[in-house]
TrEMBL record:
Keywords: DNA-binding, Membrane, Transmembrane, Transmembrane helix
Domain LysM: start-end pairs: 181-238
GO terms of molecular function: DNA binding
Sequence segments annotated as region (Disordered): 132-163, 220-298, 598-626
Family matches, as SUPFAM superfamilies: TPR-like (SSF48452)
Membrane keyword on record: yes
Lineage of the species this protein comes from: Bacteria, Bacillati, Actinomycetota, Actinomycetes, Streptosporangiales
Family statement: Belongs to the AfsR/DnrI/RedD regulatory family.
Pfam families, alphabetized: BTAD, LysM
Protein name per the record: LysM domain-containing protein
């Protein structure tokens, strides 16, 4: 038996019943009490002798008994009226009332339910009588109509009314947690700053304060009493903001409006793993950048789906999760990477990410460019991921260029057909990738796990032992037992905390690990009835089921090749028929799961590294560049004096910036031309056109790639000629089949850094080396081409960062004896560029101990702890023992 959503008629009858009950409580009860016992107020105050006399003599006429009944009746009715009025006022104002003590709590719950059903009656009646009204129903998988937006003082729109006014749509929804999201206060935050960052205007801070002052705070922290006094770790409620051009799903029961993520940096995905806007599916021709189409960044919508060359078709939500996992993996790699004991030495290049990982990450980062936002760093991605709540729904595909969103809690979906395993792999991979910090857990019997990954040589069971979000059981019976144990555990917690469901329980006690559970299994005889019974309670306990095979107890869909839904039956069939669901090939799923595993601190498997010595201009190493630094590049031996008047300056350390005659070039340059400039600057002695096309336009066919290259080349020349007023120079020289930047007209900050490191390497003694390295600290102002998303850019970015950090560490070592303070400043600058390098923290702690600064040693260790906590790591024993030795040595010396 499947659970059915309440109809409008049912809601109307419930509302009428609640209205009648309120009428009886507020009108009939006092009339009956007055008719039976009279007024509750006595005509005069009785004397003490009259009271004792009435109590001592026999109550033969039952006068005393009736008086007591009257007094108790009026005493119970008055608080009930006060509670009903308070609940009604709180409901209309859109914020919860104060939670009463346990003896009065049943009366409060009764009043709250009656008021909610009456409000539901009026909202439902309006929807029935008004043909233009929204037909949205109050279901577990559908949200009510959005709150009307109001303009903030600075012109932006927010999803809340003007301060001081109640929101009728919010009051009609009866679902507070869908209108607000929670955020943890950080060091240095103010309500004004949070309102300005999250709502677009600091003047809206009273909304956050009024919604948060009654919020239960973590243990040890006070409630919000004054808006000018907030403490790190406190929780505040932020109103949801309306998004421009947000897609309106056709089926209210499935396409729930998305929940906003709690984040401190711009994030490309939301709770439902869908970006703000939709574009055509990637089955259409390859996308062009905003610069190539003549549109400004931000005018185009971000892609909802990504088609990989391997045949995998994934949503942007999974791409974002994999991109974050690769970023965390890289930070773990930096954390463990020891610094060179001697300088200079060759630096090992970064491992090559698998094709699926590289393509998914680039597609995810490209969504920022298409929205006109800056590319986030690895730390930014982690900060956004930490703020994401546990998933309550998941996007499974696209239908008519709109996302198909299914609720995760209470999901009862069976998939069968040739394309079903790949679709299930996509759902499993995304949930495991988003399971960080006990947010989700997938339970699969071992036989079904082998069936889903049968084409892979991966030991999925062994992989699951180091993936907290993936649990593989011996059988379906063991999986059901695991779910039953979770249901009992969660039911006890809800009973102890008096919370109605698991999402409320997470809010009440964030420290309790309560992941969203999804069981993935095939149908097996008698176990189906037990599994069906469990899924019927899924809405409350945050449990869902994805069945490999036909599932008459819920929704059943036939999946054709490439994820197309041929037919479907059940509650969600209307939204699934005609959709194309995301699907992942076996090898790609294994690569993604391995990346998720390494992001949680596991050692990386041995892999080929890229690029080779011939491909990377090894900074400061004459063994790799001298073959290219021949007579046609004399200026690279030393920086050309500025008085010679090179009119073009290209800055690659940080975001790519172009200056002509000292003025920034901000218009007219295509995105492809912007990327080509950075690529040519990275290869000062030139590259072939074919190599450029492979790295910049890998998805284009040879003819389209050649056209794109010449278009970008001509755009660069035209823009630079207009900016400088020079008509003859080519700026990009083509000779002997290779293209390179003209070094007599263009100077590049990366070249200056390369020359400084090369001079230091060729120095004969430490004094000369120290003198040559000193400019490097000022030249390295940021990561290489921080706004490029190509794989080659990320590879060189990490390589240049590591090379420069090692050079700065060596410079500090050369400076430490004579100028320890200056050496400490150099190390701190290196730490800014590599904030997760544990060996660098140890070097700084040793120098601080030599300067007799024990408090600084502790602060450095605490800074390391806080930064590693973001990637679920902590300082190793060697670092901890070093801190203890440094502090104990100082105490003994005293």
């Amino acid at each position: 038996m499947t659970s059915r959503l309440p109809t409008r008629a049912t809601e109307i009858w419930r509302g009428l019943g609640a209205l009648a009950a309120l009428g009886l409580l507020l009108v009939a009860v006092p009339l009956v009490l007055y008719a039976v016992g009279g007024s509750p107020l006595p005509k005069d105050v009785p004397a003490w002798s009259q009271v004792t006399g009435a109590l001592m003599r026999p109550d033969t006429d039952h006068r005393l008994f009736l008086g007591a009944v009257r007094l108790i009746g009026w005493a119970a009715w008055c608080p009930l009226v006060i509670i009903i009025v308070a609940e009604t006022a709180g409901y209309l104002a859109g914020r919860p009332t104060l939670r009463l003590p346990a003896p009065a709590r049943p009366m409060q719950y009764l009043a709250r339910d009656l008021v909610a059903m009456v409000a539901l009656l009026f909202s439902t009646t309006t929807a029935v009588t008004n043909p233009a009204a929204s037909s949205t129903t109050h279901a577990a998988t559908a949200e009510t109509t959005a709150v009307p937006s109001a303009a903030t003082p600075d012109g932006q729109n927010t999803n809340l009314p003007a301060p001081g006014r109640a929101t009728s749509a919010f009051a009609a929804s009866g679902s507070e947690h869908r209108r607000w999201r929670f955020q943890v206060v950080k060091q240095g935050d103010t309500l004004w700053g949070i309102a300005r960052r999250e709502l677009g205007s600091g003047t809206l801070y009273p909304k956050i304060f009024l919604a948060s002052r009654e919020l239960h705070q973590p243990q040890g922290l006070p409630r919000l009493v004054r808006p000018d006094r907030i403490f790190p770790g406190q929780r505040v409620r932020i109103p949801q903001r309306a998004r421009k051009n947000e897609p309106r799903p056709p089926a209210p029961s499935l396409h729930t409006p998305r929940e906003q993520p709690q984040q401190s940096v711009p994030a490309p995905t939301t709770e439902s793993s869908v970006p703000p806007t939709a574009t055509p599916a990637p089955s259409q021709p390859p996308r062009q950048s905003a610069g190539e189409t003549g549109q400004e960044p931000g005018d185009r919508d971000a892609a909802l789906a990504i088609a990989l060359p391997t045949g995998t078709y994934i949503g942007i939500g999974l791409a974002a999760a994999i991109s974050t996992a690769w970023a965390v993996t890289r930070l773990h790699r930096r954390r463990r990477q020891p610094h060179l004991k001697q300088w200079p030495q060759p630096v090992e290049p970064e491992p090559i990410p698998p094709t699926a990982i590289s393509n998914a990450r680039k597609a995810h980062l490209d969504t920022y460019i298409e929205r006109g936002e800056s590319i986030p760093t690895d730390a930014d991605l982690i900060a956004a991921d930490l703020a994401m709540p546990a998933p309550s729904q998941i996007t499974v595909g696209l239908r008519d260029d709109r996302p198909v969103i299914l609720p995760l809690s209470g999901l009862s979906l069976g998939l069968h057909g040739p394309g079903a395993p790949a679709v299930i792999r996509a759902v499993v991979t995304e949930l495991v990738a988003r399971s960080h910090r006990a947010r989700a857990e997938v339970v699969i019997p071992s036989a079904d796990a082998k069936a889903l990954f049968t084409e892979s040589e991966c030991d999925l069971i062994g992989l699951a032992t180091s993936l907290p979000g993936l649990t593989i059981t011996s059988s379906l019976t063991a999986a059901i037992t695991h779910l039953e144990a979770e249901v009992i555990h969660r039911a006890r917690l809800m009973q102890a905390t008096d919370e109605p469901d698991v999402p409320s329980l997470r809010t009440a006690d964030p420290s309790e690990p309560l992941p969203a559970l999804l069981i993935v299994a095939s149908t097996q005889g008698n176990s189906n009835h037990v599994l069906q019974a469990l899924l019927q309670f899924g809405h409350r306990y945050s449990i869902g089921g994805l069945i490999l095979g036909s599932w008459p107890a819920g929704t059943s869909a036939h999946i054709a090749v490439e994820g197309a839904v041929a037919r479907a039956e059940g509650p969600h069939s209307g939204s699934l028929i005609g959709a194309r669901l995301f699907h992942v090939e076996t090898d790609d799923a294994v690569d993604m799961l391995r990346t998720v595993r390494t992001s949680q601190g596991a050692a990386e498997p041995s892999a080929t590294v890229r690029p080779t010595d011939a491909e990377v201009p090894e900074l400061g190493d004459h063994t790799s560049l001298p073959a290219e630094r021949n007579v046609d590049m004399p200026e690279l031996e030393a920086p050309m004096p500025r008085e010679q008047g090179r009119p073009i300056r290209l800055c690659l350390l940080g975001p790519v910036r172009l200056y002509a005659t000292g003025m920034p070039v901000t218009t007219g340059l295509r995105r492809s031309a912007h990327d080509l400039l950075a690529y040519l600057a990275l290869h000062p002695n030139g590259v072939t056109r074919e190599q450029v096309i492979v790295d910049l336009w890998p998805d284009h066919d040879p003819q389209a790639g050649t056209t794109a290259f010449h278009t970008a080349n001509n755009n660069i020349r035209r823009i630079l000629r207009q900016a400088t007023g020079l008509r003859e120079p080519m700026f990009i020289i083509h000779a002997a089949g290779r293209y390179r930047l003209d070094p007599y007209l263009i100077t590049v900050d990366l070249w200056d850094l390369t020359i400084a490191l090369d001079k230091a390497r060729q120095a004969d003694n430490d004094a000369e080396r120290r003198h040559a390295l000193q400019p490097a600290a000022a030249l390295y102002t940021g990561d290489f081409a921080a706004d490029l998303t190509h794989e080659w850019a990320e590879t060189h970015r990490e390589y240049i960062r590591r090379t420069t950090t090692d050079a700065l560490t060596h410079l500090a070592d050369l400076t430490q004896a004579e100028h320890p303070e200056q050496a400490l400043a150099i190390l701190e600058q290196a730490l800014d560029h590599d904030p997760y390098s544990e060996p660098l923290y140890r070097t700084i702690m040793r120098l601080q101990a030599d300067l007799d600064r024990p408090d600084a040693v502790r602060r450095t260790y605490q800074l390391l702890e806080s930064r590693l906590a973001a990637i679920d790591a902590e300082p190793n024993n060697h670092t901890h023992q070093l801190m203890a030795v440094l502090l104990n040595h100082r105490q003994r010396s005293r």
